[in-house]
Specification:
The protein is α/β, with parallel strands linked by helices. The protein has 10 helices and 13 strands. It has a 9-stranded mixed beta sheet with strand order 5-4-1-8-9-10-11-12-13, sandwiched between helices. Helix 4 links the parallel strand 9 and strand 10. The longest helix is centred in the last third of the chain and has 15 residues.
Length: 324
C-alpha cells in the first residue's frame, strides 16, 4: 500500500526509517545469556530509531520534519502516530495489514545500560517506491532497521535530487558500496565503525579509511569525533547523571542533522547534538526523553565555559594533543 502523503513545505528534513512500540522493564542489571532477572517497573514508550530521530529533529532541533514509516493496523500504531504528531512531525505512513507494528523489548538497568531485541514487523515492508516526493527536502536521514535495498534506493534517489544524505549505520552491519557511495554524512558508534571500516590502529585511521565526505563516531560518555574531508573535530561529552541511555544515540543523530540543515557548521552541530543527547540520558523512555530546542539552548548557555577540546579524548581518538 502506498503511503498517505502530507505536502512538503519549505526547507524540510525527511527521516525514512523504523517506528516501534518499546516494551521496557527496569531491573537491577541486564541479564547475561541464560540468566533470568526479576524486573520492577514496566511501561511502553513510542520508539524505533527512525521515529526517535524524527522526534529529535523536530523537537530538539526545531526544524520542519517529515517521516516515511510503516505501521501495522493494530493498537500499537496509535501511540507512535500520536508521539510523532505531538512533536510536529508530518507523517507519510505505509499502512501494512498483514504485519504487526514493529516492537522492541528493552531491559533497562539501574546503571542506565540497556539490552534491546527488536521485532521489525511492518518496518520490513518499506519498499523503494514508497519514498515521497523530495521537493522542499534539504536532508534525508536514514538508518538500518528497514530493508537495506530500500535504504540504498532512498539514498540514491535523494543524491540524484541534490538532497544531502545522512546515514546512521545502526544496527551494525556491512554496507553495500552502492549505499556508501550515496552518503554525504555517516554516523556510527565505535562498534558500528569497526564493522563498516574494519579493524584499524586508531579511530582516526578508521574514519579516514571511509570514502564518505563526513563521518561522525559517537563515543558514549567520552564524547564524539568527526572527520570532514581531511579535518578532525572533537566534542567532549557533557557531564550528567544518566538515568536511561536508550535513545541517546538517536537524539544525537536527529539533533545533529537538524543543526546542519539549519545552517550550523559541523563543530557547532556536534555540540548541539551532544547537549541534546546528554539531556535525553537524564530521562526515561525513547521519544519521551527527547528535550525541546529551548531546553538544549538553556543547557548550552549554562555550560558555555566548558572546554571544546579534551586531551584525553584526542589521545583516545589517535589525534595529537593540544599544545601545553
Amino acid at each position: 500500500m502506498l503511503p498517505t502523503m502530507n505536502a512538503p513545505s519549505g526547507n524540510t528534513l525527511l527521516v525514512a526509517g523504523s517506528a516501534n512500540l518499546d516494551f521496557v522493564v527496569r531491573a537491577n542489571h541486564v541479564p547475561a545469556a541464560g540468566e533470568t532477572v526479576l524486573g520492577r517497573d514496566f511501561a511502553t514508550f513510542p520508539g524505533g530509531k527512525g521515529a526517535n530521530q524524527a522526534v529529535a529533529a523536530a523537537r530538539a532541533g526545531g526544524v520542519p520534519t517529515q517521516m516515511l514509516l510503516a505501521l501495522g493496523s493494530d493498537a500499537a500504531a496509535a501511540p507512535i502516530e500520536a508521539s510523532l504528531s505531538g512533536a510536529g512531525v508530518l507523517q507519510h505512513i505505509v499502512r501494512v495489514t498483514d504485519q504487526a507494528t514493529g516492537s522492541a523489548f528493552v531491559c533497562l538497568s539501574d546503571a542506565a545500560e540497556n539490552a534491546i531485541t527488536v521485532a521489525p514487523g511492518a518496518n520490513a515492508e518499506l519498499l523503494p517506491d514508497h519514498l515521497p516526493p523530495l521537493a522542499g527536502i534539504s536532508h534525508l536521514l536514514l538508518q538500518l532497521e528497514t530493508p537495506v535495498p530500500s535504504v540504498t534506493a532512498y539514498a540514491q534517489s535523494a543524491r540524484a535530487a541534490g538532497v544531502t544524505v545522512v546515514l546512521n549505520a545502526a544496527p551494525a552491519q556491512a554496507l553495500p558500496a552502492a549505499l556508501l557511495d550515496a552518503v554525504d554524512v555517516l554516523i556510527v558508534n565505535e562498534g558500528e565503525l569497526d564493522v563498516v571500516a574494519g579493524p584499524a590502529a586508531s579511530l582516526t585511521e578508521a574514519l579516514a579509511r571511509l570514502a564518505v565526505p563526513v563521518v561522525v563516531v559517537t563515543l558514549g560518555a567520552r564524547g564524539c569525533c568527526a572527520r570532514s574531508g581531511g579535518a578532525f573535530h572533537l566534542q567532549p561529552a557533557f557531564p550528567i547523571d544518566a538515568v536511561d541511555s536508550t535513545a541517546a544515540g538517536d537524539t544525537f543523530c536527529g539533533a545533529l542533522v537538524a543543526a546542519l540543515s539549519g545552517g550550523d557548521d559541523l563543530p557547532a552541530a556536534l555540540r548541539r547534538a551532544s547537549a541534546a543527547a546528554a539531556l535525553a540520558c537524564t530521562r526515561l523512555g525513547a521519544q519521551t526523553s527527547v528535550p525541546t530546542r529551548a531546553e538544549v539552548d538553556a543547557f548550552l548557555q549554562a555550560r558555555a565555559d566548558i572546554a571544546r577540546h579534551d586531551d584525553a579524548l584526542a589521545a583516545y581518538c589517535g589525534l595529537a594533543l593540544s599544545p601545553a
